[in-house]
Design brief:
This protein has helices spanning 3-7, 40-48, 74-85, 95-99, 104-112, 136-147, 175-184, 200-210, 222-240, and strands spanning 19-22, 32-35, 53-56, 89-92, 119-122, 127-135, 153-155, 161-167, 189-192, 216-219, 246-248. The protein has 249 residues and is α/β, with parallel strands linked by helices.
């Protein structure tokens, strides 16, 4: 099967961001690797398992713009040379999985957090679930277990009761995204990937000073927030092509 045949399915769509970054889509697909970001380590591991087609959620050359630094970055050029030398094909798959509803990337994180069966509100960029009343301190420990991390950044009072949890992925933790949610939705805890550090954390500090109904934040990092969605996409790809060997790295 040629790589082009895989890309012609409804799982993929060319956008300003999504599309071929490097390689040849007319070559035969040996094995597929799906990943959050195709680092050099991922490229080397892909070769070790015999994969020549790599689907990367984020840009491989250190910018959302797929080739912004190729002309001026020696490291980016070295990486490109390695890709060409080993005849790898790299496809950027970012917008498509974010633009469908439910957003595949958010859906993957919500499922990993054991919130999928408790969803009460779903928008294009956030999902709200309702849980049994739990102290913030206890719920943070649960989140760490769900995400298999030893530490996590959080803001709020340990004895705050958490009932409604709002989940956002990636770089959606900005004031533009979150202030309308916090002020218009009855949520107790917001979990997100990342955002400007001086915006929402300080908004929450002031909010809690002025209000009795406290709010809390859990910030899990960009990759942790999105890798489960890319793993979900990997399973969707396997369902579409049962005989195709697909691995998540």
């Amino acid at each position: 099967m040629k790589i082009l045949e895989i890309l012609e399915t409804d799982l993929f769509k060319q956008t300003d961001v999504d599309g071929l970054v490097e390689g040849n889509i007319d070559q035969e697909c040996q094995k597929v690797v799906v990943t959050f970001l195709a680092t050099m380590d991922i490229l080397k591991k892909s070769l070790q398992i015999g994969a020549n087609f790599i689907i990367s959620h984020e840009g491989i050359y250190y910018s959302h713009d797929n080739k912004k630094f190729l002309e001026n970055s020696k490291l980016a050029q070295e990486k490109q040379d390695y890709i060409k030398k080993h005849n790898l094909t790299i496809y950027r798959h970012h917008d498509m999985v974010h633009r469908i509803l439910p957003d595949t990337i958010t859906e993957g994180l919500v499922k990993q957090l054991d919130l999928a069966d408790r969803v009460i509100t779903q928008s294009s960029y956030y999902t709200i679930s309702e849980i049994s009343p739990t102290y913030l301190k206890e719920y943070v420990e649960k989140v760490k277990e769900f995400l298999e991390v030893s530490t996590i950044k959080h803001f709020g009072e340990d004895n705050q009761i958490i009932k409604k949890v709002c989940v956002l992925v990636g770089y959606r933790g900005s004031s533009d995204n979150l202030i309308p949610v916090i002020e218009n939705q009855d949520v107790d805890l917001i979990i997100y990937g990342e955002g400007p550090e001086w915006e929402i954390p300080y908004y929450i500090k002031d909010y809690n000073t002025l209000n009795s109904n406290k709010k809390s934040l859990v910030i899990i990092g960009h990759e942790v927030s999105e890798k489960y969605g890319m793993q979900m996409f990997m399973h969707n790809l396997k369902q579409k092509f049962p005989t195709l060997e697909v691995t998540y790295l």
